[in-house]
Amino acid sequence: MKKTLLPLIAALAVLAAAPAAHADKFYKWVDEDGVTHYGATPPENDDTEEVRTYNSASSDQGQSIKRLQQSREAAAAERAAREREQEEARREKQEPDAVLKERCETYRNNLKLLQERPVVRTRDPDTGEETVLTAEERQARIDNIKTQLEKCKKLQ
Q: Residue 14's closest CA among 33, 27, 31, 30?
């Protein structure tokens, strides 16, 4: 037990004592008794294996993982948006009257909200940022919806 524990403690002491910023390479080797050792300098005439160490001060692994996750989320959002667009196009071809009826109902509901609520918030679909509509933006949306509702009346 002492043969195994003592080299392990020594190796851990070496690892803990060496500053991480200066420890570029560490080596792993097994001695003639079958005990595994770690150290900054390998013994001569022994098979050694270089061990990769991570220095948190210089490693950007966390940032890389975050960027990868953001990239995956953006790709998933793009796929979902394309699928919604394709489904909407399919529905427009197969059920044009039902789609028109739904859109007209949405226009009516949106107009009601814009006219009745004192503060209207909107969310940017790209950034997710929530903003309050200015009086000018609000009026522009009301005018646009009224134009769309006129089209709804003509088509019905």
A: 27
Domain locations along the chain: 2-51, 60-93, 95-156
pTM confidence score:
0.47
What gap in Å lies between CA 42 and CA 87, rounded to an integer?
A: 63
> What are the Cα distances from residue 101, in Å, to 6, 49, 108, 138, 156?
80, 71, 11, 24, 9
What are the distances in angstroms from CA 59 to CA 16, 21, 25, 30? Answer: 18, 11, 15, 29
Backbone angles phi, psi at 9, to 5 degrees: -65, -40
Q: Span 95-156: which CATH code?
A: 3.90.1280
pLDDT for position 153: 81
